[in-house]
Q: What sequence folds into this?
């Protein structure tokens, strides 16, 4: 049986890959088998991965909003656009949870020209410059021109000291982040040039997906009980993570949710944050 990917490429149906994605949603084995059986019964040659996703999402949502929200994670990152400002704040939170000091949206003077820097990190007296490349399309990839461009900016900035966290400091390393993936040439150039990369699944076992699951750092955009407009309102109020509204739910009232809807949102949020 063949399936059609978002890119238009046609590949064999991979049941094991689908099963793994369902397992990562936190669904029980019985629900996973039920979902796989339902999807297999509706497969036809050329079915799109989008259709398969909708079938799986619908089945998980009937059982638990929390399962559906975690299964929805890749799409939730795309909702941190369209210009990537909220994605930058989200990445800052990921690093903050790992013990980094963070600053976002900086304007700094390099040796030759001025630059806007998305995020600065500090840990154990080391300073990182972080640049985020956001893609609104799932199939878009950051090619080799991106790390080449970032390297030139990093070299200009590291030639001067900057007032960042505590007095005059100098960038010693650079990290390039994307919500999608990097091409092989981009990965090769970055490794050769000393640029650290972070994408959905790179580095292996420590990409964005893994960091989110390990730290329970799910973006508020993955919640299925909120509309797109409501999610954007929460982001504007600096409610970037699901755990933010679990710890303090007053902003749900501020954006106009009824008491009944607040209970439903908090129930889903608790399911997500209590996932192990």
A:
């Amino acid at each position: 049986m063949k399936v059609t990917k978002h890119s238009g490429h046609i590949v064999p149906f991979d049941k094991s890959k689908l099963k793994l994605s369902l397992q990562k949603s936190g669904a029980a084995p019985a629900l996973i088998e039920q979902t796989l059986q339902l999807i297999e019964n509706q497969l036809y040659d050329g079915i799109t991965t989008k259709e398969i996703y909708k079938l799986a999402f619908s089945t998980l949502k009937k059982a638990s909003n929390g399962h559906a929200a975690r299964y929805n994670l890749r799409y939730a990152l795309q909702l941190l656009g369209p210009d990537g400002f909220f994605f930058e704040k989200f990445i800052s939170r990921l690093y903050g949870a790992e013990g980094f000091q963070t600053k976002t949206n900086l304007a700094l003077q390099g040796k030759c020209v001025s630059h806007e820097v998305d995020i600065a990190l500090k840990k154990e007296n080391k300073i990182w410059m972080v640049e985020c490349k956001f893609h609104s399309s799932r199939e878009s990839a950051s090619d080799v021109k991106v790390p080449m461009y970032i390297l030139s900016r990093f070299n200009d900035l590291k030639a001067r000291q900057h007032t960042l966290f505590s007095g005059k400091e100098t960038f010693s390393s650079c990290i390039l982040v994307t919500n999608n993936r990097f091409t092989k040439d981009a990965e090769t150039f970055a490794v050769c040039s000393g640029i650290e990369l972070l994408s959905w699944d790179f580095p292996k076992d420590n990409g964005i997906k893994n960091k989110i699951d390990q730290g329970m750092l799910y973006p508020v955009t993955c919640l299925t009980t909120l509309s797109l407009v409501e999610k954007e309102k929460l982001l504007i109020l600096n409610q970037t993570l699901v755990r933010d509204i679990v710890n303090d739910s007053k902003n749900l009232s501020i954006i106009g949710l009824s008491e009944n809807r607040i209970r439903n949102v908090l129930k889903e949020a608790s399911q997500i944050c209590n996932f192990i």
Observations:
- The longest helix spans residues 49-63.
- The first strand starts at residue 2 and ends at 4.
